[in-house]
Amino acid sequence: xxxxxxxxxxxxxxxxxxxxxxxxxxxxxxxxxxxxxxxxxxxxxxxxxxxxxxxxxxxxxxxxxxxxxxxxxxxxxxxxxxxxxxxxxxxxxxxxxxxxxxxxxxxxxxxxxxxxxxxxxxxxxxxxxxxxxxxxxxxxxxxxxxxxxxxxxxxxxxxxxxxxxxxxxxxxxxxxxxxxxxxxxxxxxxxxxxxxxxxxxxxxxxxxxxxxxxxxxxxxxxxxxxxxxxxxxxxxxxxxxxxxxxxxxxxxxxxxxxxxxxxxxxxxxxxxxxxxxxxxxxxxxxxxxxxxxxxxxxxxxxxxxxxxxxxxxxxxxxxxxxxxxxxxxxxxxxxxxxxxxxxxxxxxxxxxxxxxxxxxxxxxxxxxxxxxxxxxxxxxxxxxxxxxxxxxxxxxxxxxxxxxxxxxxxxxxxxxxxxxxxxxxxxxxxxxxxxxxxxxxxxxxxxxxxxxxxxxxxxxxxxxxxxxxxxxxxxxxxxxxxxxxxxxxxxxxxxxxxxxxxxxxxxxxxxxxxxxxxxxxxxxxxxxxxxxxxxxxxxxxxxxxxxxxxxxxxxxxxxxxxxxxxxxxxxxxxxxxxxxxxxxxxxxxxxxxxxxxxxxxxxxxxxxxxxxxxxxxxxxxxxxxxxxxxxxxxxxxxxxxxxxxxxxxxxxxxxxxxxxxxxxxxxxxxxxxxxxxxxxxxxxxxxxxxxxxxxxxxxxxxxxxxxxxxxxxxxxxxxxxxxxxxxxxxxxxxxxxxxxxxxxxxxxxxxxxxxxxxxxxxxxxxxxxxxxxxxxxxxxxxxxxxxxxxxxxxxxxxxxxxxxxxxxxxxxxxxxxxxxxxxxxxxxxxxxxxxxxxxxxxxxxxxxxxxxxxxxxxxxxxxxxxxxxxxxxxxxxxxxxxxxxxxxxxxxxxxxxxxxxxxxxxxxxxxxxxxxxxxxxxxxxxx
Length: 927
Fold this sequence. Notes:
Elements: H1 2-17, E1 25-33, E2 44-47, E3 53-55, E4 61-66, E5 72-78, E6 81-88, E7 95-99, E8 109-110, E9 118-119, E10 128-131, H2 132-137, H3 143-146, E11 153-159, E12 162-167, E13 178-182, E14 185-186, E15 207-214, H4 218-221, E16 228-234, E17 242-252, E18 263-276, E19 280-292, E20 323-324, E21 329-332, E22 336-339, E23 343-344, H5 345-348, E24 352-365, E25 371-386, E26 390-406, E27 410-420, E28 425-426, H6 427-434, H7 449-464, H8 476-483, H9 493-503, E29 518-527, H10 529-532, E30 536-548, E31 562-577, E32 582-593, E33 599-608, E34 614-625, H11 629-633, E35 635-637, E36 641-644, H12 648-651, E37 661-662, H13 663-678, H14 683-690, E38 705-719, E39 722-734, E40 737-745, H15 758-764, E41 770-778, E42 782-795, E43 801-812, E44 829-837, E45 844-853, E46 856-858, E47 868-870, E48 873-884, E49 889-896, E50 903-904, E51 911-912, E52 915-922
Membrane topology: Multi-pass membrane protein
Pfam families: CarbopepD_reg_2, Plug, TonB_dep_Rec_b-barrel
Organism: Spirosoma montaniterrae
């Protein structure tokens, strides 16, 4: 709150300290709906030929201060209304402007599909749009959650401050195949390698629009846009001035299955923007969210080495989903499989989460159509995230700087992104590490951590076998209690001390996750259409540079700095034929990363419009995705195995790709050799008899994942108040990134004649002479996916609006090996139905949204890609809003997941329940 107060004070100081340029005059008035006479809040009012503009307040009123003298022309516009121009004389009295309802209010303008403005009806590919007015109308508590109501969207909630979206399958909690841009800046974390979604970015107060493209967009946006694109635009201070404040208070954890009591939730957001003279404008933003995260408290036994019917709380080898440390297990002779006693996630992580977003921008007009922009965005947040483990991204920071010059037909943009993981840690590792701090030997002495696990199992075996005085033999409960003597209990001083100590240690010796990585990006675009006249042509390109820094904890970068460069360029041409009824567009992009061969991704589309109301489209699209920088450069020695990124300079000298055996053949050789020696065969004879079971590995060098897809669709106005959209797509995918384990002996794998080297076989039998590697490579397997999405939007009488959409998706694994393909992780069927009326009365509005999706199996690295069932579920969001024009405030009462169905959206993540809130939004209080 101190930071927010500081930002507001700074904005007010700037507003009063910088005087207007020249003698000024004021023009004021009110904007109303021509049909109902109701005042229109949020209408845009600009002075033609200048940068001066504002928006109407909650009572439809506006005041513009301008230095332009004489006769003025005002342009008044609003979503859903027809734009109107009004002439204003020097001595004009307050105006009343009445806007007619637009007959084409379902025909919006989009930019992301072709990187130029065009009607959403004539977009060459499927595209969805959510603008500021739709967010205000939405039943969701914020704009990011409202995206889940768009057709084709998959939203995965890991926690209160972390949600991730995807389209068209191959979904995950950290989605490296889906690009998210905010004002053109990639929202990805350089070290994590994926977009940090709603954790950072913008608040509802500064959102202008969000456009979503389901499906590959690599032909225009490069390698990350493999599955789709979300393009978020924030408000320009020249068009959106004044002070806006929003305060939300709410509660979650109502009737929590864990037995916890309801917890408070608060979110405060402030935006202030002002135009100074005709050329300079600025804005500042601040928001702060705080609440109690939902709990990951599923204690289902998922131990893969125990028969399903024997799993459960009484299983000595139990491996509970959200208990950590019990993954450490052994099969004890004469006893069976036994696991260590673990710690619950709730005792290891921090569920009191927050999200702080600060931002500001200065805009300077160089002439009427050229604008120079500098923007700074800073975010710091805490969230729980599910990946290969459960991670606590604690006080994780992301800072972005942007400098941009944009004109009527061009832009040049440069930005940087820097991250700081600070106090982040691996929750599962933390449980295992604490478990190694207190174990005692049979004499009661605490052993060192490297001996803790073996000693614990020895204590267990001794007690179970009746070798300990006072212990009943063959009793698992008593054996565990004896092995657990001295165990640090959650909440104790010793437990908290060891927890904080290991969080503070990054790398293998601790649970901390350290990354201070950065990326730098420069790009530009030029539209040649005005010069060519006969067709529309755009071209552009970018250069990107990664500077990784883990201080040697994740990468081998203590001495050898890791820096990766990539670049790309694209061109697009479109032409209308048949008296503008047919629009043909072709585009292509070439991208090159320093570690991989270049990729060319073309796209071609045709849109046939027999009338202004009906539009048929067909397109061919391609996509590709380079491995992330962590995929290329991770070099993590976890003891029995080295996880090795595939960049050539990261693998040089290790001989992992060049001189190794397949893990499967090593297993077969070891089993056969052991059986032979056990039956009395001499060592050398057993080795020579079985060495040919070893197979030299042939792991291809890593390259980009690739896809190609075909799409056909129709979007049209069945009437002026009824919009229908339907599309079908079919895509094929290949070269998916996978991991492969190999075993490298110290000796050469093969002799000159191509046979297996006996010395290499002997090395395999000696731990000191071999090394296991987990390598990154691509699977040659091909798979396909297809699907249908359809949506209907109807504007009914008296302001009612109905939106309904549904999506069907199918995955065809074809002849592929399931181990070589990432999980589809998408339900076959999902649907949304929304009923709203933002003008039920002059002051009252409401919205109700229903989301349903079918059950499916979730595969993730958290459970070593073993399936976990996500049941089918329905969610209902609802809100009612009340406008108070005299106070320039809107009161909103709502509930997300209104009926409080606790649902898990990714196996191993938290069960998400209802969130109930009240918000007050004060808008355009200052002009």
